[in-house]
Amino acid sequence: MQTPIYKVRPSEDRGRADHGWLKATHSFSFGSYYDPKHIHFRTLRVLNQDKIAPHSGFPTHPHDEMEIVTIVLSGLLEHKDSTGNTGILSETDVQVMHAGTGLTHSEKNPGDNELHLLQIWLIPNKKGVTPSWQQQSFDMTSREHDLLLCSPSAHNNSLPLHQDAEIRSVGIGAQQTWTYTLGNTRHAWLHMIYGSITIDQQHVLHPGDSIGISQADSVSITATEDARFIWFDLA
Predict the structure, then answer these.
(1) Coil, strand, or helix at residue 14?
(2) CATH numbers and ranges of domains, the chain
(3) Cα–Cα dist 63/133, whole Å
(4) What is the maximum span of the chain, computed from C-alpha positions, in angstroms?
(5) What is the pTM of this model?
(6) Which of 64, 98, 131, 174 could pair with 103 in a Cys bridge, judged by C-beta atoms 3.0 to 4.6 Å apart?
(7) 30-69, pLDDT tens digit by residue?
(8) What totals of helices (H) and strands (E) does the chain contain, helices first?
(9) What is the pLDDT of residues 98-112, one digit of tens each?
(10) DSSP string, 90-142
(11) CA distances from 102 to 82, 140, 211 (A)
């Protein structure tokens, strides 16, 4: 049996950017933030936690050859892209944009309250796909939940990904334990949203903290208070 490998990424160590209308934190190198020790984790290339002021946002800009997942934590997000797709997302919504051969899009906060979101980029396992976009609602606001948001086969009503990866939203009540069978050939990344958890009775995580896990047959997570995190199962 192999010894599990844990890579803790404390919230305070993340890269930060303050543009006034945008306050961003970067788990991996992004934009002007560069850390050679944190370029990516497996195919997870970007994990940004952004707060966007009311009636502002990202103007139209291009993307290509990337799987881009956006999870709204609170507030409203308005999406528009060059393929004609539009959508308004709230804290129950997730969107996936398959940038493929290239498209442009804008993401703005149309509301009167701050928008809080996660933007996730995964390196795709195929290039040259036709750009497309999907949006779906999930009951992520319930205290206890385990929801498959994205997967390569779009099973269990999840959104599709062009990558061997699954993304889950998990909520655990205080003193409850969530166990996941990972398999020692897979890898996991966990990003905390709120609350406090202990992983395998070794590592305590708080909001904004992340951890990468490799060589673990299974992972056991106990909440010391009501908690929510995003879970990545990666090749």
Answers:
(1) coil
(2) 5-234 (2.60.120.10)
(3) 13
(4) 53
(5) 0.97
(6) 131
(7) 999 999 999 999 999 999 999 999 999 999 999 999 999 9
(8) 0, 20
(9) 999 999 999 999 999
(10) -TTEEEEEE-TT-EEEEEEE-SSS-EEEEEEEE--SS-SPPPEEEEEE--TTS
(11) 9, 30, 32
